[in-house]
TrEMBL record:
This is DNA-binding transcriptional regulator, MarR family. The keyword Protein transport does not apply. One of its GO terms (cellular component) is cytoplasm. Residues 12-146 form the HTH marR-type domain. It comes from Nakamurella panacisegetis. It is found in: Cytoplasm. GO terms for molecular function: DNA binding; DNA-binding transcription factor activity. The keyword Disulfide bond does not apply. PROSITE patterns: HTH_MARR_2.
Amino acid sequence: MSSPETDPLALEQQVCFALVVAARSVVALYKPLLEPMGLTHPQYLVMLALWQRAPLSVKDLSGRLQLDPGTLSPLLKRLEAQGLLVRARDTADERLLSVSLTPAGVALRSDAERIPEAVVQRLGMKVADLRELHTTLTGFISRTHAIDSEQDR
């Protein structure tokens, strides 16, 4: 049996494993910060997109979050039930469903503004290191999307 350093199938050497564990760890890191706001991590991502730009069509929001509409729809339904957003037919194009923030959704942003700094503090990492990680991950995502696009041809 080979050592983990030389075994091409060693779990510890797999990028996919490191990414999955990192993703779960990030969600766990955010959980206690988001619970007082009544949000899950996926709901927080929806709110981030809408705080940046609203209203958005469900299609545009789905694209920004890189989620299929079937995954996004239940998130929107729960956020709407919490009174944070409203879904309505677009007045310019009845085929589109538009997502807008309610006053409560807009107001929640002030509570959320403390989260990025709290995450940095909990991680104990330098902001520059986190920016570098973000750049690396963004490049990784772009490359995987390029591969997906080539395979779709």
